[in-house]
Design a protein that fits this description.
The protein is an alpha/beta fold and 307 residues long. The chain has two domains: 4-143, NAD(P)-binding Rossmann-like Domain (Rossmann fold, 3-Layer(aba) Sandwich), CATH 3.40.50; 146-306, Lactate dehydrogenase/glycoside hydrolase, family 4, C-terminal (L-2-Hydroxyisocaproate Dehydrogenase, Chain A, domain 2), CATH 3.90.110.10. 44% of the residues lie in helices and 21% in strands. The protein is built from ten helices and 14 strands. The strands form four sheets. A six-stranded parallel beta sheet has the order 3-2-1-4-5-6, sandwiched between helices. A three-stranded antiparallel beta sheet has the order 7-10-11. A three-stranded antiparallel beta sheet has the order 12-13-14. Helix 1 packs parallel to helix 2 (39-54), helix 1 crosses helix 9 (228-242) and helix 5 (146-161) packs antiparallel against helix 7 (200-211).
Length: 307
């Protein structure tokens, strides 16, 4: 049985760490692509040389040539400029739109049946760019944000309550960034809503910290942004698709009327399997939650209009 093939575009911290996780899990052969000559080749070789120690036989190669990506099952897009301290996600917009457009056009030429997982920020807007550039149906264009935002929320819940992260579940809707909508009443510890375990002001503090999670790390690092957790979150999506696991994960997908939103990429819970996004799970929102979700969608709309 041939191993699956995943192309990761962008050999920076996020891309290289995604490649490492996929290879070390023995999940797929990985092709790391970057515009910089030598960078993907060097990281690819370094990752390949770790294989005997880690104990996997997945192939990892780095290249500047998209012909090497032919027949990929999944293409992960991480390329673009990263956020600097004090920079909003929106300031990345025009530069990264140009980069994402060109890399997606190249990748889909060689892998017309691939599923695209977009990681580049501003995430929701970059999904639009990728969809337009690829001409793919909405099932095959997914944005990675909700898994990361949920992981951050779960981390903070576990820290706050002194419990295992494994028993925490978090529910985050909406755009990736300041307008995201964490839903505390659906966020649980071993099935118990956190609203039963924490006073409202603590819940609110965790919600706020989750929305600013990326910025908090950017401010601490001074140079660079988060990559361990984003890479882990991307891996979880890739694994769900390649193993056809039907995982229910929050992803940015194009909504066609779900949640009262039409024609925009916004984060919602979806079933992920071999076909990519297999269905959107729609839940009833309270008036407050619905209003917050609409604000989030409006923020995405604004970015898309700027494009």
């Amino acid at each position: 049985m041939a191993r699956s093939k995943v192309t990761v575009i962008g050999a920076g911290n996020v891309g290289a760490t995604v490649a490492q996780r996929i290879a070390e899990a023995g999940l797929a052969d990985v092709v790391l692509v970057d515009i910089v000559e030598g960078l993907p080749q060097g990281k690819g070789l370094d990752l390949a040389e770790a294989a005997p120690v880690v104990g996997h036989d997945a192939r990892v190669m780095g290249t500047n040539d998209y012909a090497d990506t032919t027949g990929s099952d999944i293409v992960v897009v991480t390329s673009g400029i990263a956020r600097k301290p004090g920079m909003s996600r929106d300031e990345l917009l025009s530069t990264n739109a140009g980069i994402v457009r060109s890399v997606v056009e190249e990748a889909v030429r060689y892998s017309p049946d691939a599923i695209l997982v977009i990681v580049t920020n501003p995430l929701d807007a970059m999904c639009h760019v990728a969809m337009t550039a690829s001409g793919f149906p909405r099932e095959r264009v997914l944005g990675m944000a909700g898994v990361l935002d949920s992981a951050r929320f779960r981390t903070f819940i576990a820290m706050e309550l002194g419990v295992s992260v494994e028993d925490t579940h978090a529910f985050v809707l909406g755009g990736h960034g300041d307008t995201m909508v964490p839903l505390p009443r659906y966020s649980t510890v071993a099935g118990i809503p956190i609203t039963e375990l924490l006073p409202p002001d603590r819940v609110e503090a965790l919600v706020k910290r989750t929305a600013g999670g990326g910025a908090e790390i950017v401010a601490l690092l001074k140079a660079g942004s988060a990559y361990y957790a984003p890479a882990a979150a991307t891996f979880e999506m890739v694994e769900a698709i390649l193993h056809d696991r039907k995982r229910v994960l929050p992803c940015a997908v194009l909504l066609n009327g779900e949640y009262g939103v039409d024609g925009l990429f916004v984060g919602v819970p979806v079933v992920l399997g071999a076909g990519g996004m297999e269905r959107v799970i729609e839940i009833r929102l309270t008036d407050d939650e619905a209003a917050a979700f609409q604000r989030s969608a409006a923020a995405v709309q604004e970015l898309v209009e700027k494009l």
